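Figure 2 data, in text form.
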Amino acid sequence: MKIILGVDPGSSGGLCTMDMDGNILELHKMPIFEIDTGKVKKGGKPKMRKQIDFRGLFNILEPIYKSNEVEAYTEEITHLFGLPSSSNFTLGYACGVVHSALQTFGEFYLVKPRLWQKEVWQEVDYVHKLTKSGAKKIDPKPTSKACADRLYKLDTFIPKGGRKPHDGLMDAALIAEYGRRHQL
């Protein structure tokens, strides 16, 4: 069976498989582990950093690719202005892990955020925020949440044991929907 795989990279990202009719088949939070940064928080506890678990990601992807014809799409991440270089490095590292895991199974496509957002968001989904200068700007997280609710209902994205929808799962589903509409 041919399916679309959408991946929101990053330690709080997710994976979504979707059939050609737009039905969500599987959702997975990005597998992570924590490593000690060598720094200490107030109270004496070690400061930990989340990283993507390559083996865990491989174990999610292997059965998907083994039993399906997969067309994979992941968000293309570039430098994020306003974030410290350490955050950009961490995001770049996470993308490298995701790309390596996907490349293990074959070809995949990078999609710029503006491209998939323009395709799946509709005007009814837009949530605006005011910039420092007072201009209206689309707020991407709540807009994606509204779009995911319109297309699939938010309950779909609440992980087991969770109480609220997971941003990474919603974005992964919207990236998969973009891929479904633009099969290459």
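Caption note: The first strand starts at residue 2 and ends at 8.
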